[in-house]
Amino acid sequence: AQSVTQLGSHVSVSEGALVLLRCNYSSSVPPYLFWYVQYPNQGLQLLLKYTSAATLVKGINGFEAEFKKSETSFHLTKPSAHMSDAAEYFCAVSDQGGKLIFGQGTELSVKP
Amino acid sequence: DVKVTQSSRYLVKRTGEKVFLECVQDMDHENMFWYRQDPGLGLRLIYFSYDVKMKEKGDIPEGYSVSREKKERFSLILESASTNQTSMYLCASSLWTSSMDTQYFGPGTRLTVL
Description:
- The complex is a heterodimer.
- Helices cover 0% and strands 55% of the residues of chain A.
- Chain A is built from no helices and eleven strands.
- Chain A has strands spanning 3-7, 10-14, 19-26, 33-38, 44-50, 56-58, 64-68, 73-78, 87-94, 100-102, 106-111.
- In chain A, strands 2, 4, 5, 9, 10 and 11 form a six-stranded mixed β-sheet that branches. Chain A has a five-stranded antiparallel β-sheet with strand order 1-3-8-7-6, with no helix packed on it.
- By secondary structure, chain B is mostly beta strands.
- Chain B is built from no helices and eleven strands.
- In chain B, strands 2, 4, 5, 6, 9, 10 and 11 form a seven-stranded mixed β-sheet that branches. Chain B has a four-stranded antiparallel β-sheet with strand order 1-3-8-7, with no helix packed on it.
- Chain B starts with a strand and ends with a strand.
- The chains are: A mainly beta, B mainly beta.
- Chain A binds chain B through residues 9, 32, 34, 36, 41-46, 49, 51, 90, 94-100, 102-105, and chain B through 4, 9, 31, 33, 40-45, 48, 50, 58, 90, 92, 94, 96-108.
């Protein structure tokens, strides 16, 4: 069965610093992987997704993620954090029939 | 742009009440989903629907039912609300059942059961 583990429920960075949010997955088939962002009091918005076309995936707002099969990882990065990046981030792996299995979420705080 | 709307942003109900949460999507999507979101647990799938009048149980269906009479509308029903159903409820839709399909989410309904 597919599963997702996000390491770190809270991550805090300074403005301008590198953002690294970790995601490891378990899947019995080649996975499709997603990162979603949730701003306060809003629904989830797709940041990026991996569908096997390229291992480095670029998303919105300067985020990107690299699929590493050998490490079963799909970590999310952004070179320079902005105050507006403060939000909760969810990694997800697709299951049969278009269902998603979500990780526990990581709350990102950005300090001025 | 895909738009998924939910009938209420905040809802307060009493234990034992029947509660209806409504979700509407405007992009002719085939699939619709209901999740609940709790701190530290991420999103958990309650029910989903691949077509009108079709429904499938997700991971935590107990205490919930759903209705999909029209393609654009998917309702979540709490037959007899309990305090442990206090949560954020998120609706989502996607075009097909392909595993690479993006799910589009509504803004959520924060339900408090007293």
